[in-house]
Amino acid sequence: MHQSVISMTHLKKEIELAKNKQLLVLDDLSFDVKKGEFISIVGPSGSGKTTLLYCISSLLPPTTGTVLINGQNPYGWNATKLATFRRKEIGFIFQHFQLIPALTAYDNLVLPGTLNGHRIKPATVATLTKRLELKAELHQSIDALSGGEQQKVAIGRTILADPDIIFLDEPTSALDTHSRLLVMTILQELVTTGKTIVMVTHDLTLASQSSRAIVLKDGHIQKIVEAPTLETLIF
Ligand SMILES: Nc1ncnc2c1ncn2[C@@H]1O[C@H](COP(=O)(O)OP(=O)(O)OP(=O)(O)O)[C@@H](O)[C@H]1O
């Protein structure tokens, strides 16, 4: 039996649009993610994918229902414990990169791992950037890099920080097909080392390379597809 890394029970999320006006974004979602799984979350625009990712990753408390990460409720923790947990145990790769503009590309790459107490060697950075085919000069400002290069830095820094669970929101939106495949290959390798990955994507080709896909529709789980293929993912 694999242990559950994320466990979600009857999760409901409402967002307050105005006083006494709630939008029901997620309605009664339950599922478990096991250690070493590569889960994709797919579905039409507005179906609730990003909201679900935020709820299960400690960023956004559900309105009702429970979220457990490694058996614990992150929304019950104080700010210090939550911040330490987010820094050490989990990694986020956001759609809009969230890089630090005042730093160089290299410093963006090593900062989260360094804050976690890892000594990240230049050779380790060089090996990873070579695999990502990140050819930009890394000692220039992050702003000088193209969108695709910045996305590779965002992916690389999370890998270097070495968290147990990685959450990704449209991680390859700025990349060409070749680079998407490179990133997917690296993510799949991470899963074989015991990392757990949860990825929101519009790209069904990417989702078809995950081990299980959750298909959302109008805030509900429409279906859960084991070993998804392009055919079984159509929604
Ligand atoms: N803070 C918010 N304020 C108002 N509406 C919101 C907010 N967050 C989410 N929504 C709405 O909730 C619904 C689900 O949003 P969400 O971003 O989770 O969907 P999504 O499936 O990730 O969409 P996309 O694929 O377009 O990114 C949408 O109708 C969205 O407009």
From TrEMBL:
Domain ABC transporter: 6-234
GO MF term list: ATP binding; ATP hydrolysis activity
Alphabetized UniProt keyword annotations: ATP-binding, Nucleotide-binding, Transport
CDD domains: ABC_MJ0796_LolCDE_FtsE (cd03255)
Keyword Phosphoprotein: no
InterPro entries documented for this protein: AAA+_ATPase (IPR003593), ABC_transporter-like_ATP-bd (IPR003439), ABC_transporter-like_CS (IPR017871), MacB-like_ATP-bd (IPR017911), P-loop_NTPase (IPR027417)
Endoplasmic reticulum in keyword set: no
Family named by the database record: Belongs to the ABC transporter superfamily.
Name used for this protein in its record: ABC transporter domain-containing protein
